C-alpha cells in the first residue's frame, strides 16, 4: 500500500516538475523574441535625499510586457535569462537604454543599473560599459553599477580587477541588497565600492532590537569608510523616522515612489518629495 502511495506521490511531483519545466521553456522561448519585439521596458524608481527632498539617482528596473501574460516580474524572468545566457544581450539593451534615458536628465542625477554575475563573468564587460557611455553621451560618473554579493563570492580576484578598471574610468559601484545573503563586512573594504544599499529585510525587521543594532553598526561603518548609503524598501513614516534618527539621508521605497515608466520621470525631477516627517 505504502508503495502505491509513494508511487502516486512521485507521479504528482513529477507532473508538477514537468509543468514547471515547460513553463520555463515557454518563457525562455518568448524571452528570445522580447527584445526584437520591443516588449522590454525600463521603469525608474527614485532614490531621494531627504535633506534636499530631491531625487539624486534613479534605479532602472526592467519590465517585460508579455503579449499574453501581461507584466512579467524580473524575479521570474531574470533567473531564466541568467541560466540561458540571454541576460548578456538583455543586459546590454538595459545599459544602452538606461544611459540614453539618463543623458536627457539634469547632470546632477545619476542612473543605477543592475548587473548579473553572468554579465560580470564575461571578459568584455568593461569594454561593453566603456562603449555604452559615449554612445549615449553620458558622463561615466553618472552611471552606478549595482551588483549583489553573489558576484563577490565566486572569482573574487577577477571581480576586483574589473571593479578597479571601472572605477578608473569613473563609473561608480554599488553593493546592492546588503545584508540579504552571506554579507561579509570585509567586502566593504576589500572591494572599491562607492555605495551600499541596505536590503529591505532590515527595514521590515526594525522593531527587533537585534536587527536595529546590526543596521546601526552598518550605518556607522559606512560613514567611517566614507561610503554612501541608501536604505531600500522604506514604506512607512515610522521606518523613515527611525532610520533618519540613525543618520540615514538617502532612501528608496514605496513611501516616496514605486518604480514608474520613463514618461513620469520629468515630474519626479521637478517636484520635491515631501514626507510628513520632513515637511519644512
Ligand atoms: P533590486 O535591484 O534590489 O531592486 C529593488 C526591488 O525592490 C525592485 O523590485 C523594487 O520595485 C522593489 N522595491 C522598491 N521599493 C520597495 C518597497 O518599498 N517595498 C517593496 N516591497 N519593494 C520595493 P523589482 O523591480 O521587481 O526587481 C526585482 C529584482 O530584479 C531587482 O532587485 C534586481 O535584482 C532584479 N532586476 C531588475 N531589473 C534588472 C536588470 O535590468 N538587470 C538585472 N540583472 N537584474 C534586474
Ligand atoms: Mg538594485
Ligand atoms: Mg536591492
Ligand atoms: Mg533585490
UniProtKB/TrEMBL annotation:
<protein>
    <recommendedName>
        <fullName>Diguanylate cyclase</fullName>
    </recommendedName>
</protein>
<feature type="domain" description="EAL">
    <location>
        <begin position="24"/>
        <end position="273"/>
    </location>
</feature>
Amino acid at each position: 500500500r505504502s508503495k502505491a502511495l509513494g508511487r502516486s506521490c512521485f507521479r504528482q511531483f513529477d507532473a508538477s516538475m514537468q509543468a514547471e519545466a515547460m513553463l520555463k521553456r515557454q518563457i525562455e522561448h518568448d524571452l528570445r523574441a522580447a527584445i526584437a519585439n520591443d516588449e522590454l521596458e525600463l521603469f525608474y524608481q527614485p532614490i531621494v535625499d531627504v535633506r534636499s527632498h530631491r531625487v539624486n539617482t534613479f534605479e532602472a528596473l526592467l519590465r517585460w510586457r508579455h503579449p499574453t501574460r501581461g507584466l512579467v516580474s524580473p524575479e521570474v524572468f531574470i533567473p531564466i535569462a541568467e541560466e540561458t545566457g540571454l541576460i548578456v544581450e538583455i543586459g546590454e539593451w538595459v545599459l544602452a537604454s538606461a544611459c540614453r534615458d539618463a543623458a536627457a536628465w539634469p547632470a546632477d542625477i545619476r542612473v543605477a543599473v543592475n548587473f548579473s554575475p553572468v554579465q560580470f563573468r564575461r571578459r568584455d564587460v568593461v569594454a561593453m560599459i566603456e562603449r555604452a557611455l559615449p554612445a549615449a553621451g553620458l558622463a561615466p560618473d553618472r552611471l552606478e553599477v549595482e551588483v549583489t554579493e553573489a558576484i563577490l563570492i565566486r572569482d573574487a580576484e577577477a571581480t576586483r580587477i574589473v571593479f578597479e578598471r571601472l572605477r578608473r574610468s569613473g563609473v561608480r559601484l554599488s553593493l546592492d541588497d546588503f545584508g540579504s545573503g552571506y554579507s561579509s563586512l570585509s567586502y566593504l573594504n576589500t572591494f572599491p565600492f562607492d555605495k551600499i544599499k541596505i536590503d529591505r529585510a532590515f527595514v521590515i525587521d526594525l522593531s527587533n532590537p537585534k536587527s536595529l543594532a546590526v543596521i546601526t553598526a552598518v550605518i556607522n561603518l559606512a560613514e567611517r569608510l566614507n561610503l554612501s548609503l541608501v536604505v531600500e524598501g522604506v514604506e512607512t513614516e515610522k521606518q523613515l523616522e527611525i532610520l533618519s534618527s540613525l543618520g540615514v539621508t538617502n532612501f528608496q521605497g514605496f513611501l516616496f515612489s514605486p518604480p514608474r515608466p520613463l514618461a513620469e520621470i520629468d515630474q519626479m525631477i521637478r517636484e520635491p518629495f515631501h514626507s510628513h516627517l520632513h515637511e519644512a
